[in-house]
Amino acid sequence: MKSYAINVNTKNIRHQVSTLPNSPGVYIMKNIAGEIIYIGKASKLRSRVRSYFGSARSMEPRVKILSRQIADIEHIVTATPTEALHLEATLVKRHQPHHNVRLKDDKHYPYLKIDIQNEWPQVTITRRIESDGARYFGPYASPGSVRRSLAVVNKLFPWRSCTKKITGTDDRPCLDYFINRCIAPCTAYCSKEEYDEVIQSTILFLDGKSKEVESRLINEMNQASAKLEYEKAARIRDQLHAIEKLHENQQQMVTTTPLDADIFGLFREQNETCIQVFFARGTMIVDTDSFMLMGTENATNSEILAAFLGQFYENANYIPKNILLPSTPEDLQELESMLRVQKKTQVNIIVPKRGHRRSLVITAEKNARESMAMHHARWISDTQKTEDAIKLLQVSLDLPEEPQRIECYDISTIQGTSTVGSMVVFNQGKPVKSEYRRFKIKSVDGQNDFASMHELLNRRFKKIATNIGENGISNMSNENGAVDSWGKLPDLVIIDGGKGQLSTVLDVMRDLGLSDIPVCGLAKKKEELFIKDQSEPIELPPSSEAMYLIQRIRDEAHRFAINYHRSIRNNNSKKSLLDSIQGIGPKRKKSLYQKFGSIKAMREATIEDLSKTEGFSISLAKELKSSL
User: Fold this and answer.
1) What share of the chain is helix, strand, coil (3-state, %, to 5)?
2) Where does CATH 3.40.1440.10 sit in the chain?
3) Hey, which residues does 521 pair with through a beta bridge?
4) What number does CATH give the domain 384-565?
5) What per-residue confidence (pLDDT) applies to 236?
């Protein structure tokens, strides 16, 4: 492959792009500071890169944002689109560009290994899969997970855990023999055939074929009993009881048909994306893992899945036969080709529409949602991270003190109707939901976010300004008895918006005599912070704890505003449709919602069904049906 570079400026950009070859390859975009901001792949480089510099009207928002920042482009020509996909994943992992979907964890999963070439095999842990004739089981999401599995297997099947040379001439066995963790080949207490039976049962169990294991053990137990080998029969009986107990306590059986698959679920919330993966081997889910992705705010689900899978499998030790997804990834054929080259056999990327496989994907999606919630909870409970974030905010925004109490405001409206505002409060990095506030915007007609924010902040801070009076902020504190719960002073105010919104807020604070309260605006496009008396934005490191805290607070304000707006919209919808129908008052309306749950269900109901609602006659049901 060959690498080239072109310098781009606004005058000659189209000419420069026209010199690119129409070959497969990877393009590397840099900003004016020389930082890599995006890495992409293409089957035709010139055509793909040219799309970033076409008509702004036809561009997707994310492309429009990116194209404004490009100051330099490099490209690498590859032999095939598949090679380009592989190279893109490698470079994105290495450079972590801001505008790419980024998988932060470059994991090499641990596996259980049984070297069946060895005369007396053991079960060990490894992170490398080699073509050495050994059997590998996994992957497991963490060292702790694989160690727990190893301990369970060793309790069930008495293979040796030592590394000594087995001669069969030792005088006496070690402790493992007496606690039923080994059948002591070192002292010839067992034959080679008996030891091989233990290993085969272990392999079957790890393959998810526990029913076969139980059948083998029952047969062995009966044979031992028939030969009057009661001690051996008792040991096998205990094994069977342990396996039965394990089955009672675990919910890992996925299907009666063996499945070699990785099952993925995706969940998005605001600017964050979480992907959950289940590793299905045989009839078992051997383990599960989750990933928080960065750089996904402007990407589609198909783009996110394609970028994630390329990075996830780039250096994978093992690729399963099937990959189950919630939706089709971008560049499906190139992705399948890349995986086929790595695995040296066909890999099927499947989007199941029904049946058990579809239910597995849905379960993975539910777990992705739970994993994101757990990620948020862990971050909030991590005192060190929140302290670091607050300290970095103080330094970056040049605040007089650490911003312990942070308030964030957002406006929500659709085409200027039912405009509402939200206020969320975080104290020491944690949400204080009892102090959240919602506002119906009353003085603004139509869509005017600036005027709406002006009203919201006037209503929020007018009482504080009155209480402070002539004393000024310097003589007030949150511990002062004159300041109640509603009147606490924030150490920092965050606005969801750029320079325009910030200017509006600063005007309000100045008019109320509260100019000493620090304010910053967070612009969504580049996640830049704007503050008073500084024309250039402040760019926090994208992966910093401070940026994560600010984004979490902004997203929480956005969520709170949207939920309030949705509830008002729903109430208005109910009013406009049912309250205008003569004969339907509050009691009958309540009966309708208790029976049908929604306007949509009422529309789909028959007149006969509607007439069976408490308080309804056939004539009133007909009137309702015609009005809906």
Assistant:
1) 45, 20, 35
2) 2-100
3) 495, 530
4) 3.30.420.340
5) 77
